[in-house]
Amino acid sequence: MFLIKKFVATFAMPVPMTLMLLLLAVILALMGRRRGARVLAGGAVALLLLASWAPVADALLGPLEDRHPPVLDARSLPGISHVVVLGSGYHAMPSLPITSQLRDSAVIRLVEGVRLWRQVPEARLVLTGGNIHQRESVARGYSRLAVALGVDALSMDVLEMPIDTAEEAFAVKDLASPDARILLITSASHMDRARRHFERAGLDVIPAPTRHKSLSEDRSRFEYWVPNAFHLRKTERAIYEYLGRVSLFLDHRG
Q1: 73-79: long-range contacts at Cβ-Cβ below 8 A with a sequence spacing of 24 or more?
Q2: How far apart, in whole angstroms, are the C-alpha atoms of residue 225 and residue 155?
Q3: How much is the average pLDDT of 187-207?
Q4: Which residue, 117, 153, 185, 188, shows the most beta carbons closer than 10 Å to its own?
Q5: Structural domain boundaries in the chain
Q6: Fold annotation for 74-210
Q7: Would you say the C-alpha torsion 183, 186, 187, 189 has a positive or negative sign?
Q8: pTM of the model
């Protein structure tokens, strides 16, 4: 199921969709159907331009990021027993610093988790995330960075097996007590779907989103209004999350 989700998500993105439309346009042109080819080619270019334009990207991503307010001070939240950081990308390369081995989203999630955990140090810091591409897990990469930032290894739980958000939720459920109160850290665009997975697993969750990409934009800059790869990535992130919601609806775990 995990591989099927990744496959569908990959080919539903704007760049692969644009390439497929252009390929169809070439086929139609070779068949002599030039009008249809022009329509498809024009649609492909329009799709890529719109997906790379900030107003479109933010219209898609903003509603996902705006569902839960960030947690600025965890000391105002009583009873936190676990600070959980959800997995992201990691590629182990010992020749590089750990901050280069983790994706930017992973670094931001982990740093936010450590920041909030320091405000409630009586809680456990839980690092999650498996890795199907290599032997060393995302959670292990997280733990390396956390230790480098001064976190005592005895204060952490490292969950290396779960490979998606649903599995992370049930792994945390198996770790925590029934009355646990979870402070959940993940990217703002991913938070609402993650919260639903954890609540479906029967956990009491307080969302603590980070890595806001659309809400932090400076719309007064000229560059904001020019289509570029940064805005394309925001559109891709939004599409991925909307597809994830479909997957959540179809997933009957819990």
Answers
A1: 73/119, 74/116, 74/117, 74/119, 74/120, 74/183, 74/208, 75/119, 75/120, 77/120, 77/183, 77/206, 79/181
A2: 45
A3: 96
A4: 185
A5: 2-65+225-250, 74-210
A6: Rossmann fold (3.40.50)
A7: negative
A8: 0.89
CB 231 within 8 A of CB 52: yes
Distance from the Cα of residue 107 to its chain's centroid: 12
Tokens 């334009």, located at residue:
53
> DSSP states of 223-252 as a string?
GGGS--HHHHHHHHHHHHHHHHHHHHHH--
User: Tokens standing for 246?
Assistant: 């479909």
Q: Tell me the residue ranges of DSSP E strands in the chain.
A: 82-85, 124-128, 156-159, 181-187, 204-210
Alpha helices, DSSP H, located in 70-130: 98-101, 104-119
Hey, what amino acid is at 113?
Answer: G
Indicate if the alpha-carbon torsion angle 37, 230, 73, 174 is positive or negative: positive
Alpha-carbon gap, residue 191 to 56, rounded angstroms: 21
**pLDDT of 254 strictly over 60:** no
> What's the pLDDT score for residue 3?
57
Query: Exposure of 198 by Cβ count < 10 A (0-12 exposed, 13-18 middle, 19+ buried)?
Result: buried
Q: Which amino acid is at 195?
A: R
Q: Which position has the higher pLDDT, 212 or 247?
A: 212
**pLDDT tens digits, 106-148:** 999 999 999 999 999 999 999 999 988 888 999 999 999 999 9
